[in-house]
Design goal:
CATH architecture: 3-Layer(aba) Sandwich
Strand content: 5-15%
Low-confidence stretches: 1-7
Radius of gyration: 19 Å
CATH superfamily: Zn peptidases
Number of helices: 10
Bound molecules: zinc ion
Distance between the termini: 11 Å
Helix content: 25-40%
C-alpha cells in the first residue's frame, strides 16, 4: 500500500498547480450532493434490526457446521443464500444457477471445490457499470466438540448484504431502480486466504474496468474494547486509498443519514494489524477498484466458537448497514462515475 499512497499524494499535488490542496478538497466536497434524501431514507428504513437478526440466526444455524470452504456445511449455507435471493425475486447475472463455481484446482491444502454466490439489481441507465457489495460466507468449520458459528464473522456481513439487496429491490419495484447495477457478492474461501475474491477478480462476471467500487463487509455486529463508551462507531479502512471522492461520499452519507463515529485508526499504511490486506476488498484494490472495508474490530469471541448470534448488537448492525446503503445508493445513482485518483 505504500506505493499507492505515494502515488496518490503526487497525483493530488500534480493536479493542484493553480489551486491549493485544501481548496481542491473543498471543491470536491461541495460537489457531493445527496439529492432527494427523503426517497433515500424511505428505502434506508426498510433495513431493520429484526430482519437482520432473523438473517444472522438463519445463516449461523448449526446445520451449516461452521461453513468451512468446500465442506457440506458451506455448500448448504451457499444454497441458503441462493434461496434468499430467489425468495426475494432478485436475479443473478449468472442466470438460474447463482453460483460462480470454483474448482478444487484453484485451492491448495486439500480444500474441495466451492462457490461464490452472486445476485444483482440491474441498472437502468448504465447496467454495465457495477457497484459490488460483498461479504464472505465461509468460516472456520467445526471440531469434534464445537461449532464455529461465526455470527459476527461473517453472519453480520451476510445479513447486511441481504438487507441491502432487499432495499435496492424495493426501490426498483417502486420506480427507483439504480442507474448503475448493484451486485451482491457472497465470497467463499476468505478464511483460507481471500481465495473467493482472488478467483472473482481473476474471472470477474462484470469486468474490473467497469467495476466502480467494492464495499466489503466483514464483522459489523459487535463492539470492541476501544468503544465501550461509544458504541455508535465503525472502522473504515481503505476509503481514501484509491479515490478521494469515495472517502468524502462516505463521510457525507454518514453525516446525513447515520451519524456514526467513523474511526480511521486502522486506515494507515503502517498499521501493524494490516487489516486492509486481510479481507476481500484487498483483491479488488489490487485491480485498481476503489474500496471501503467496514469492520467493528476484534473482540473476545473473534475466531472462537463463542462468536454466536445472541451476542450481536442488532440495533448497531442496522445503523452500520444503513451507512453502507446510503453510500452505495450515491455510487449507483450519481451522474458521473466515481473518480479514481490514480491509474492503479
Ligand atoms: Zn471475516
Amino acid at each position: 500500500m505504500k506505493n499507492l499512497l505515494v502515488a496518490l499524494s503526487f497525483t493530488l499535488v500534480g493536479s493542484c498547480v493553480s489551486m491549493r490542496h485544501s481548496e481542491k478538497i473543498d471543491q470536491l466536497k461541495s460537489s457531493i450532493k445527496f439529492e432527494d434524501t427523503e426517497t433515500i431514507s424511505s428505502y434506508l428504513n426498510t433495513i431493520t434490526a429484526s430482519e437482520l437478526e432473523s438473517h444472522v440466526y438463519g445463516f449461523c444455524n448449526e446445520e451449516f457446521q461452521g461453513r468451512r470452504t468446500g465442506e457440506p456445511g458451506h455448500h448448504k449455507a451457499s444454497k441458503f443464500i441462493k434461496d434468499y435471493y430467489i425468495s426475494e425475486g432478485i436475479k443473478s447475472p449468472l442466470g438460474s444457477k447463482y453460483y460462480q463455481y470454483i474448482p478444487e484446482s484453484h485451492f491448495s491444502n486439500g480444500i474441495k471445490d466451492s462457490q461464490n454466490v452472486i445476485a444483482f439489481i440491474e441498472g437502468s441507465e448504465k447496467p454495465n457499470e457495477v457497484i459490488i457489495l460483498s461479504a464472505h460466507s465461509d468460516h472456520e468449520g467445526y471440531t469434534d466438540s464445537e461449532i464455529y458459528y461465526g455470527a459476527d464473522d461473517n453472519g453480520s456481513g451476510t445479513a447486511a448484504v441481504f438487507e441491502l439487496a432487499q432495499a435496492f429491490k424495493i426501490a426498483a419495484a417502486n420506480g427507483h431502480r439504480p442507474k448503475r447495477s448493484v451486485v451482491f457478492l457472497h465470497l467463499t474461501g476468505e478464511e483460507i486466504g481471500l481465495e473467493g475474491s482472488r478467483y472473482y477478480t481473476k474471472y470477474p462476471v462484470f469486468s474490473m474496468k467497469n467495476t466502480v467500487a467494492n464495499l466489503n463487509i466483514d464483522m459489523i455486529g459487535r463492539v470492541d474494547e476501544a468503544h465501550t463508551d461509544n458504541e455508535d462507531y465503525i472502522y473504515l479502512i481503505g476509503s481514501d486509498q484509491l479515490s478521494t471522492e469515495l472517502h468524502y461520499i462516505s463521510e457525507e452519507a454518514n453525516s446525513i443519514f447515520t451519524n456514526l463515529e467513523l474511526d480511521y485508526r486502522f486506515n494507515k499504511d503502517n498499521d501493524p494489524n494490516q487489516y486492509f490486506s486481510r479481507s476481500d476488498q484487498y483483491n479488488f484494490a489490487l485491480k485498481g477498484v476503489p474500496v471501503i472495508f467496514y469492520f467493528n474490530g476484534e473482540h473476545e469471541d473473534y475466531t472462537e466458537p463463542t462468536d454466536t448470534p445472541d451476542k450481536i448488537n442488532y440495533r448497531l448492525l442496522e445503523k452500520r448497514t444503513k451507512l453502507i446503503f446510503a453510500t452505495a445508493w450515491y455510487l449507483a445513482n450519481a451522474d458521473n462515475r466515481l473518480e479514481v485518483d490514480i491509474d492503479a
